[in-house]
Amino acid sequence: MDAMAGRKPAVVWALNISVVLLVALWLFPTLGLLISSFRTGDQITASGWWSALFPAEQTMQIRVADPDDNRVDLGNGRFMVEGNIFDGAGFAGELNAWGTSSRRLGEFEPGVAADLGDGETLTLQADGAYIWEGNDDQISGRAQRVFLDVVTPPDFTLENYNFVLFDENNSEGMAKAFFNTLTVVIPATIIPILIAAFAAYALAWMDFPGRAILIAIIVGLLVVPLQLALIPLLSLHNAIGIGKGYLGVWLAHTGFGLPLAIYLLRNYMVGLPRDIIENAKVDGATDFQIFTKIILPLSFPALASFAIFQFLWTWNDLLVALVFLIDASGQTTVMTKQIVELLGTRGGDWEILATSAFVSIAVPLAVFFAMQKYLVRGLLAGSVK
């Protein structure tokens, strides 16, 4: 007994550490996505989300003002262009060093008059103010290009959310995709629960020939990859006239979710007190009355647990939606497909992608946190007698 007691704290510590690691693996990417959704594209490129609260160093390539429009004649064949190199760049920060070639980044310090050859000079201050001097040939044509090593302060913006949710060029597609996703998810979550609840009650408390075989088939279906059934099921839908549409994707999600739902609910219902059901039958209650007035209320944790799984799976699904729902018209595009399209047109705008991704996970997060207290109770259903 002492040896077992001595091992128990180690097991508890291992369990606690494992839980902390699992929470961290889930929390850190989500937190990073949230922080990145409030940052600009330049900041995301320059530094990771974990350094968002600290100044970040980055390299910028900018040209000074057009010399043909801004040059001043100094006499003796000398001309000058004066201004601030950050004007119009939307930049707020401080210059550390600069250079005129990508091979010599940080060649000059702020305030130093850089000799560009043949009497041409460029002086660049830390705040971006510059003076460019040279002869007529030098201070004309295309403006001088410089590479800046700058330090940018922490900056957070709501422009990303404004673009995703309210910009006319994008918000209409995202809003439509949001409601399309709800149209898929809500029925695809409710329908399997209704069917599975009846089936689970029958397999748990009703005696009929072949019940054990049905249970074995359901357990076997849990390990069958859904990818094996996509093409045959789509062919069946086309043959019976369903084709691509909401009905087809509802039936597909229902079929793919039923094995887990029936298995989970049946295990929970088997563990309910037999005396309650037998007393109800003695009092003259029918199986339907027992199911609706006793079994369903007592099985709410298991129902809520499966509802969480089904909702999250259907909300984040792309493969089933591509096969059974989305057509060439794009009128039934869901959130996951809309984000993929945004990635195709804005592959470098990481801030827009991060914002769109976080918008898409906001609803699943709300559902999970609202019902997570039932999750563990439902998952442990039938594991202990």
TrEMBL record:
Keyword presence, Transport: yes
Keyword annotations from UniProtKB, A to Z: Cell membrane, Membrane, Transmembrane, Transmembrane helix, Transport
Q: What is its main location?
A: membrane
Domain of life of the native organism: Bacteria
Q: Which residues form a coiled coil?
A: none
Q: Which family does it belong to?
A: Belongs to the binding-protein-dependent transport system permease family.
Q: What is this protein called?
A: Maltose ABC transporter membrane protein /trehalose ABC transporter membrane protein /sucrose ABC transporter membrane protein
